[in-house]
Amino acid sequence: KMDDDDDIPQLSSHTLAALQEFYLEQQQREGMKTSQGFNQYSVGSIEEDWQLSQFWYSDETASCLAKEALLAAGKGGRIACVSAPSVYQKLKEQDGEDFSACILEYDRRFSVYGEEFIFYDYNHPLDLPENLLPHSFDIVIADPPYLSEECLQKTAETIKYLTKGKILLCTGAVMEEQAAKHLGVKMCKFIPKHSRNLANEFRCYVNYASGLD
């Protein structure tokens, strides 16, 4: 008789290994969350939601970008993170530093950050709370969720509204021309990494003399 197992789709060993790794990671992460001293601000405390096109930076990249933002903002500086929650989370870990930060984000899970969270939909780039004054941030870090000119153009309106001047943009290498066109930013040598490898090459762009070269 036919072997009943034939109908069962077999996962390749590669897929199985990847799945096991994923579950293991999840267990470890859950374990971390329940262990004492779990920091709700730490990168990864809110899981990536790929349907929202979210991809968190690696810990090193998030730290590096947060440090750059602090330097660029200066003492008592104000930093806006537009669709860049992992940088915001790293900033929150810098306890006692003299600066303030806001997170503009579509994902309402980040409302755990209280008043610093501002709901943001790039389709309505200037639909912002009244108390968010124009040109009130020393630096804006932005990571538009999609690699499309439309998304960049609309996010650029928000960035230009918020910043006093300095811009740090993270997006695909393919967006270099559009980034220059809409924001006047140039590519840095620094290569941002994500906690999961993305297919698209990712780069940072700035419009000031940064520490990312």
Automatic annotation (TrEMBL):
Q: Which UniProt keywords are present, listed alphabetically?
A: Cytoplasm, Methyltransferase, Transferase
The record's GO molecular-function terms, alphabetically, read:
nucleic acid binding; protein-lysine N-methyltransferase activity
> One Gene Ontology cellular component annotation?
cytoplasm
What InterPro entries does this protein's entry cite? Answer: DNA_methylase_N6_adenine_CS (IPR002052), Efm5/EEF1AKMT1 (IPR019369), Mlase_EEF1AKMT1/ZCCHC4 (IPR041370), SAM-dependent_MTases_sf (IPR029063)
Q: Please classify the protein's predominant subcellular localization into one broad category.
A: cytoplasm
Q: Give the subcellular location.
A: Cytoplasm
**Which terms under GO biological process does the entry name?**
methylation
Q: Which reaction does it catalyse?
A: L-lysyl-[protein] + 3 S-adenosyl-L-methionine = N(6),N(6),N(6)-trimethyl-L-lysyl-[protein] + 3 S-adenosyl-L-homocysteine + 3 H(+)
What is an example of a Pfam family matching this protein?
Answer: N6-adenineMlase
- ATP-binding as a keyword of this entry, yes or no, is no
The protein's matches in PANTHER family, at most eight in alphabetical order, are given as: EEF1A LYSINE METHYLTRANSFERASE 1
This protein is called EFMT1 methyltransferase
> What organism is this sequence from?
Panurus biarmicus
Q: Where is the organism placed in the taxonomic lineage, from the top?
A: Eukaryota, Metazoa, Chordata, Craniata, Vertebrata
